Amino acid sequence: MAEVKKIKKGLDICLYGKASDNVVSDTASELFAVCPDDYPGYVWKLCVQVGDSVLKGGPLMHDKNKRQIFMCSPVSGVVTEIIRGERRKIEAVVIKSDGSTHEKEFKTPQSCQDLIDLLCQSGLWAMMRQRPYDIIPDPDVRPRDIFVTAFDSAPLAPEMISSSDHGVLEEGLKALRSLTDGKVYLGVKFGSGISSSAAIVTEFVGPHPAGNVGVQIANISPVNKGDVVWCLDARTVCRIGRLLSENTLDMTTTIALTGELVDNPHMIKTSIGAAIPTLIGGQLSSKAVNPRVISGNVLTGVKVSRESGFLRYPYRQITVINEGDSADEFMGWASLNPLKYSVKRTFPAFLRGLAKPFRFDARLLGGRRAMIVSGEYDKVFPMDIYPEYLIKAILTFNIDRMEQLGIYEVAPEDFALAEFVDTSKLELQKIVREGLERLRKELS
Questions:
Q1: What is the pLDDT of residues 341-372, one digit of tens each?
Q2: Position 279 pLDDT exceeds 90
Q3: Crossing angle, helix 166-177 and helix 234-246, to 10 degrees?
Q4: Do the Cβ atoms of 433 and 407 come closer than 8 Å?
Q5: Burial level of 193, CB count in 10 A (0-12/13-18/19+)?
Q6: Domain 255-337+344-351 listed as CATH 3.40.50
Q7: Is domain 103-250 classified as CATH 3.40.50?
């Protein structure tokens, strides 16, 4: 039987607009985009120019130093636009789909090195992450262990895999096992019934962030200084398994269209990087005067334009909530409204229970102030780390202190809940990301 880990610290945020798993629609988007910011740790160089034709799985960008690592096109079509930002930074490569199923052909691997080359060439390597630093793994480094999470516990998150995926999941896990001298761990939701002969299965029960791979690593085999582990989600493992068993590069994804301002929250079958206007067209409520469209969940997702945005990786949901800039509340923070949410019992909402859905908007609800060491992060941070002191060490860039406090174990998403409950309104995820990048450059 699988070992069961109980996560006690955390918080499930209940929002309106959960998608029904029984309603699935096919949405054929014309435009797709790949955004380099979704693949951290490398400097990307273009392989294509505007007007070039590409196959599904064809290279769009490669790393400046490790040229064998590619980001690939999710569809077959023509490159229509290369969006650049400040200092000509590449922000997105846009592809117009031709509607065909033409894809690049890949050779069946005969050795471990062949498998690594295949994953790098197909773009699947860029979908994996390593701890420390939460970046794409170095293909020249063999990991201590590999961790896979098979569920997402974030607000309004859909199921990650279905029963029909178990076969390709097992094939993918077998492939991962050949890439490490250690073990492959599969974290699943308690009672899911998922089993594997290629990985050690651990069941997790408890509130969010139980589904975060960082929390699962911390509860199974923590990362120490000098260790390198790889982590990925079960959806990516299924893509690896399908590429090996069926010789087909699977760039499709089933996402959840969620949120209070969606008339009919449901599942949508599309491909990675699909255009947001196609996905949400005609689905927004008449109350959506100034909606905020988030590619991902409300804690870690990316704000995108509803007119020109794209589905960002690795998110499998779109959340639409009110911006809140036109809100006019009687008494404001001193209100006794029983429908106002608070984890600290500031409002009487706790009397009705926090398990019932609340209506959230995107307001900060408070000004930024000096950091207060109050222990509020600890209540939602289920890792053996002092998060407040680690944030202080990152802000002062005290490398010795950061190492002692567990900087090598964490990723920005691990601090999402702490950022949500933070009285000081600090951008904790941004602080952690910048700290990890600075530390990696300092020690490399």
A1: 888 777 777 777 777 888 889 988 777 788 87
A2: yes
A3: 90
A4: no
A5: exposed
A6: no
A7: yes
